[in-house]
Amino acid sequence: MSALIDQMLDLTRLQMGRPVDLHRIPTDLVGLVSAVAEHHASTTKRHVIRVVADSPELIGLWDASRIERVIQNLLSNAIKFSPNGGEITVTVAQERDATGGIAVLTVRDQGIGIPSEDLPRLFDRFYRAGNVVGQIVGTGVGLTSVRQVVEGHGGTVVIESRLGHGSAFILRLPLAI
Predict the structure, then answer these.
(1) Which CATH number is 128's domain given?
(2) Fewer CB in a 10 Å sphere around the end CB: N or C, the chain?
(3) What is the rounded CA–CA span in Å between residue 68 and residue 64?
(4) pTM for the whole thing?
(5) What is the pLDDT of residues 137-177, one digit of tens each?
(6) Distance between alpha carbon 55 and the CA centroid of its chain, in Å?
(7) 109-134 residues labelled b (16+ CB within 10 A) or e (exposed)
């Protein structure tokens, strides 16, 4: 409940044109992902959650509580939209570009997937994909919050999905700003 309230407060700030105040601290993304994945694995018997990382830790300057909320949202969605169970893989990797290091976080499921016509609006507030409305409970604010937090950190989020074959949410976060 607390996470949902925090999401709504962040969305309200954004709607009012006020940026969210990030409290950046050195944060180990691998450790954060592992802890959240372990918690979510204990909530399901039909899913296997695997964490795959290039290295034992990946430190960046992020708002740890908001990044944790992003991971929680994506894992919750992966479980919820994979009603038949299956494997959920969370990958943490590092890339280099001209501006420095980039953390790449991917959450991939084998669930119901997202219709291609819904992909452009999936991050819109209160928007839900047509194949889940009335079938799977949700508020339509989680992915809006994900995008807001990721972009607030100077990052990007994209979706790869095929109806009936699952989805992958790929986040790129600068290690430092």
Answers:
(1) 3.30.565.10
(2) N
(3) 6
(4) 0.85
(5) 555 567 888 998 999 999 999 999 988 899 999 999 999 86
(6) 20
(7) bbbbbbbeebeeebbeeeebbeebee
**Euclidean distance between CA atoms 102 and 21, whole angstroms:** 21
| Long-range Cβ pairs for the range 151-158 (8 Å, 24+) | 152/19, 152/20, 152/22, 152/63, 152/66, 153/22, 153/62, 153/63, 153/67, 153/177, 157/123
**What is the domain extent for residue 136?**
2-174
Rounded Cα–Cα distance for residues 107 and 29 (Å): 13
Note whether 68 and 40 are within 8 A (CB): no
- Tell me if 49 sits within 8 A of 40, measured CB to CB: yes
Total residue length of the chain = 177
Total domains, the chain: 1
Q: What band does 6 get if pLDDT is binned at 50, 70 and 90?
A: low
C-alpha 164/C-alpha 62 separation (Å) is 34
